[in-house]
Design a protein that fits this description.
The protein contains 7 helices and 9 strands; from the N terminus they run ααββββαββαβαβαβα. With 267 residues, it is of the alpha/beta class.
Amino acid sequence: MDINKQYEEYLYSMDRSFAVIGGVGLSQLADQSQLTLDTEYGTVVAFIIKMADNNVLFIPRHAGGRGHVPPHKINYRAIIMAIKQLGITRAISVNSVGTMQGHSIGSIVIPCDFVDFTHGRPSTFFENETVHADMSEPYCPQLRSLIRSILKEKGVDTADVIYACTEGPRFETKAEIRMLSNFADVVGMTGVPEVVLAKEMQLCYASVCLITNMASGIESSRPTATEVLDVLTSRKEFIFELLYSIASHMPIERECRCHYSIDDGTL
């Protein structure tokens, strides 16, 4: 397959284009041609979707040849590198999360910071040199502002939250949630190292988090995968509606400092 011809139209509108990294429930898109992107870190399954006259690269992070890829086995480096190789400078991540602060099930929240409790995941592109990426503002303020304004226009309440990322694939214990709730608002398994790697590649990156369940111990009922999937299914149409609105309002110019995230960071 001639990769240049395949992406000719996409590359033409690159200035207003962006990538979407989809989570659970967003792994397959009907009526869309599946693409395969090769990187030095592995192969990535992707689609190109037309949204508001923009070609948007859609990468389902859990897609794999043997079915659903669990969060601790996702090839985050390949995903971010595929985006970078195509010259895309912005990425919107869709994540399902549990709330530790009583947010309504099915509501949308926007991370402004994170705490990392993962372990064993490759979390940097710089294995053989010391590069300190600036994480003082891990999520792009321009993209976060855009998402907030669109949700406000739609009459949808949202909140800025701190995202705690755990290793998975198990749910957290009640004791872990009691600890995490002291310094985070929501908990998930896929936000890190994705956001870190995006920062290392100087991308603008923001996350749209869908509250799918109460975290363990918040209510008497226990969290289940069925509950998560049910909420994702019920809100899938709205998530795509939101992504279309983001595509139609995506500014051409980057007015943030994300592209300076590793400047003066190398020892």
